[in-house]
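Key idea: predict the complex, not the pieces.
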Amino acid sequence: MTRVFVPGDSGARSVGADAVAQAISIEAGMRGVKVEIVRTGSRGLYWLEPLVEVETAAGRVAYGPVTPAEVPSLFDAHFLTGGAHDRSQGPVATMPCLVRQRRVTFARVGVVDPVSVRDYEAHGGLAGLRKAGTLAPEAIVDEVTRSGLRGRGGAAFPTGIKWKTVLGAPADRKYIVCNADEGDSGTFADRLLMEGDPLTLIEGMAIAGFAVGATQGFIYLRSEYPDAHRVLERALAAARDAGLLGADVLGSGRTFDIEVRLGAGAYICGEETALLESLEGKRGVVRAKPPLPAISGLFGKPTVVNNVLSLAAVPGILADGAAAYAGHGSGRSRGTLPVQLAGNVARGGLFEVPFGTTVRELLERFGGGTRSGRPVRAVQVGGPLGAYLPAQQFDTPLDYEAFIAIDAMVGHGGIVVFDDTVDLARMARYAMEFCAIESCGKCTPCRIGSVRGTEVMDRLITARDAGDLAAVEEQVALLKDLCDTMLGGSLCAMGGMTPYPVLSALRHFPEDFGLDAPVAAGRQG
Amino acid sequence: MRGERHGGPARGALPVVDRQPWSDAVDAALAAHRDTPGGLLPILHAIQATVGHVPPAAVPVIADALNLSRADVHGVVSFYHDFRDRPAGRHVIKVCRAEACQSVGAEALVAHACRQLGVALHGTAADGSITLDPVYCLGNCALAPAVQVDGTVHGRVTPAMFDALVQGLRGGTA
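Result:
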């Protein structure tokens, strides 16, 4: 029986993958051909979705984007044996957009049945957890530290150091919390992994549990991801059945289990202390630090809070060794970065590349320009708290330190592309509005500053449209002053980094604010 | 009424006269999660999944069962965008307003949606069929603009596709 792979990923489903899978099943039935349809995750090549793959003697062959109406013609073209068709993308192993990547964390995504432990193991899964089961906690932490892995959620804190703190904190209970509240616009790597290879995350959390002596894990998942929720629950059930979770994980004698908790539509709960409050059943209000969650986290106990991608990188680090992981990357940014190209881009999707790849390389080699066909004018990197970059900064390598040096941040690796119709003053206004909508309200610079910031932007845009330069300059001065207060006085990154998109828009695109470039550069700020 | 009860509502102690259409759902949610550490969000999600919203009159019942103040529970219900204190339309459409979707016309799509349904964001169409909510990222940023209809995501949504979705909802169960 021929195996046909159709993504069950929510992105692929959003452009008709379910209908394509159904059409293949019906057409096969009518022709009396036996096929087994496997719903995988997505490879992340979203411009090709729905991307159908067929297992042939010569490996997998891809077809996409496929519509249900084209399915009969695929059968006519003998796609089940890799036959040529207008939608043919050739053998998966030679697709340039995959060959040019370095798939480490996402190696299995789009390949395996996400909830099959057998499939997972056949593709290299569980080797890391087995290794961890033979190691002392200190040795696991040491391996992760030496890999150079840094938190993929945005703050880039060394994962091994965080684990070491939790390991050294004496307590009767400790927790592993996975931050799956992927709220940044332009990012979907966590979702893609959870829908396509959730067992990697589960394995990573179990290893973290072994490393610090925690027996309970929580995945705090945003409610906007119902598909990921369904897949995670099925994967957890499969993991328990296979003995990956429970009282005696893989015969190691150690206990670990995981529960999924749903968020409820609050961006701020991606901030780790707000997330912990939410997990405790409270309003997602940010906590002052210290104490660090590693010392006093969930229910007051030492807690590892890691992003999905940080935890998902761990099984590979244990299986292949720290040196192999650290062998990728540049400077102090080790390993690979799953970059997400989004927005107005011709070929949007997820591309896992080593740190050090430049924005321009990503846009040109993978993105293929804008979807609208107009010139790229700006990109926003790192979500709604990330800076807007003009074309003259596109040669910046994606590396945490290189981005900090230009007052920007890599964040979770999302790059949103805008063409030349974008109004950066409007985007700056939106940044303030978003902060006002999503602020937890605990600290004044964020809660009030964002509302005042929206008002200032409204007056600035009115003045700009009226051509009133004096009024524009007055509002710009206010805006800079306000941003200074938010930057320096906010409790967390929400208020503290909302000025990044605002000030970067102002600095690089002063003409959108009704200013000439020299005027913006010359003023206080 | 509160003083007459000794057990929580999950033990079935609410007098018959106090029973509301949502009481069974609240009881079930409390029975399932009242002993769960940090169980308030799972409880609220369970109630909303069954009832469609979290009735304000259920707040004191939940508070009593969890040994919290009404203010605590109201504070949580009102903090999170997901929880509603009144019923939504028969279908909920969430239109993404985040940056990636804006880069390919989300604001125009939102304006179109509001016009077509005759509502502002957060509003429900006059026939009760559809509630239109904003959402800030559905994780479908490479296939923007994105819209979620009763939990299912649609990508590269044009105004014409939006109209077709609405027509489907209204022609179907609406």
